[in-house]
Amino acid sequence: MHNRYIHMLTIAELQFKLALQVSASAHSEHCLQQPLVVFSFGGYHIERDDLSLTEDESQIAASALEHCATHLMAVVIDTALEHTIPNRFESLDMPIVHASRIARLLRNAFAHNPLLPVWHITNENHRGQFEIPGVISIDARHLHGLEVDWRHYGGPLALLKFLAYTRSRIRDLSA
């Protein structure tokens, strides 16, 4: 079972890395403006004009793709921890408790409004300072109701490190 969640974490990581590359490309090289000539799938067919983007549209879409990949990572991290660590919020292993609380906070923020995430902290146990040193930290004591700002948790690269940390911990459990 652990391997399934390790695989899900890896897929989320790959998706995020691709989104970062697409975003960087859209904001610097403008290469997303040259769409496929033709695309068909399942009996449907579209032409180049149906897929074309202006420079502004490609930058907006690339940023949204990165945002959605960040959301995917948050959901997958929480799901993996939930299904591989029994009683994760009551564990004697404090880094696991902190990881679980951070994952749940992030998942909730994105799940309630994926394109405009807001901190949704109704569980008093999730209002506190949670940290995995060198990986990610959140001071969630006063975040409830605020729009999520990457500075609240260290940003998408902190989340990428958090994903790697989670995968490593789950691997250790399955060894």
Describe it.
The chain has 175 residues and is mainly alpha-helical. The protein contains 5 helices and 4 strands. The chain has helices at 2-28, 48-51, 55-84, 94-112, 156-174, and strands at 38-41, 44-47, 129-132, 136-139. It has a two-stranded antiparallel ribbon with strand order 1-2. It has a two-stranded antiparallel ribbon with strand order 3-4. Strand 1 (38-41) and strand 2 form a beta hairpin. Helix 1 runs antiparallel to helix 3 (55-84) and helix 1 runs antiparallel to helix 5. The longest helix has 30 residues, at 55-84. It is globular. The model has no long low-confidence stretch (mean pLDDT 89).
Radius of gyration: 18 Å
Number of strands: 4
Question: β content, as a range?
Answer: 5-15%
Strand order of the largest sheet: 1-2
Question: Total helix count?
Answer: 5
Helix content: 55-70%
Largest sheet: 2 strands, antiparallel
H and E string: HEEHHHEEH
Q: Shape from CA axes?
A: globular
Distance between the termini: 12 Å
* Unreliable parts: none
Overall mean pLDDT stands at 89
